[in-house]
Structures are given as structure tokens and as C-alpha cells.
Amino acid sequence: MLPDPAQSLEQPPHPPISAHMAHWAETRPDHPAIAWRDQSRSYARLFGDARQIAQAIQAAGIGKGQVVAVAGQRRYGTIAAMLGVFLSGGVLLTLASDLPPERQRVMLREADARLLVAVGSRGEGLAFPHAILRVEPESAQVEPQASTPGPLPPLTGDDPAYLFFTSGTTG
Fold first, then answer.
1. CA–CA distance, 14 with 152 (Å, rounded to integer)
2. What is residue 129's DSSP assignment?
3. How far apart are CA 156 and CA 11, in angstroms?
4. Which H helix or E strand runs over 45?
């Protein structure tokens, strides 16, 4: 039985992922957060890179609750970009690289995405009408960077975090 939609749900028992990652970056800064093949990135490095991306997102004029699309290769820069969207207060929309460009354009339009974070060479062919940030896949360096980094917004469990599109099928 589904809950009554008129009643408020209880606050989630866990903090937003951004607070969780900040905690790990502070308490275990040198521990590996991401490992693949013969490389790894620490919690401090991941959080620092994500924070830099979050500040670039804010500098692009994105406010809390606005949709930010992330498209790109399966690399470290994509993980840092996704966390950067969370830190900025933006709502994450991921664009799978195997989707046809027309489907990606529909998702961007329907979600009212205000910014595209392109990791690697992604973003071409989408005719995105708003700003595009570029993130280097391996280092997670972002262009353009925020000229005057500011504070990141406080987040709660009531803030939207992500937006998913489904194929519409049930089986």
C-alpha cells in the first residue's frame, strides 16, 4: 500500500551525499575514494576537485535547485563533476553517451537544464542553448574556472538532488 501523498515523509536518516563526502575528506583525506586500474584519487582530492567544479557551476549563474546536465566519458572527471553538481545545490541530470543525440536533446529540453558539464569532448551535436563547462576527464580540471570562489549553499534532505528519465517501459 502506498503512503498518503498528502502526508509529509520523515526526514531521511542520512545527510546529503555532499555532507557525507565532506566528512570523509576531512576525517580520512588520504584514503582512496576512487580506484581503477593502477590509479586512485583520495577523498581530499575528489572533494577539492568537486568543490572547484561546484564553484564554476555557481559562477555560471546556476542557483540551488536548477538542473545541471553531466555528459561524458566514464572517467574520474565525470565522478567529480557529478559530485560538483550536488555540492553546488544543482539538480543532477546524467546523459548516457549511448543515447541518440535527439533523445539527449529532448531530455535537456524537458528537464529545463540550464548548464551542461561536458567531460572530455562531449557536448558537440547537442545544440545546447545555454552555457557549457568543460571538465578534463583524467584531472577533473574545469574551464572556465570561477574567478572568485564563494561559499557553497547549505543543503538538506528536502533539496532535490537528481532527475532521471526512463524509457517508459515497465518490463
1. 20
2. -
3. 9
4. helix 43-59
Query: Residue 1 and residue 158: Cα distance in Å, rounded?
Result: 23
Task: Say what the pTM is.
Answer: 0.86
Strand ordering across the sheet containing 131-135: 91-95, 67-72, 115-119, 131-135, 142-143
Could you give phi then psi for residue 125, rounded to 5 degrees? 85, 0
Secondary structure percentages of the chain, helix, strand, coil, to 5: 30, 20, 50
Cell 531521511 maps to which residue? 12
CA dist 157 → 14, 73, 154 (Å): 8, 29, 11
* Interval 26-56: pLDDT, tens: 999 999 999 988 899 999 999 999 999 999 9
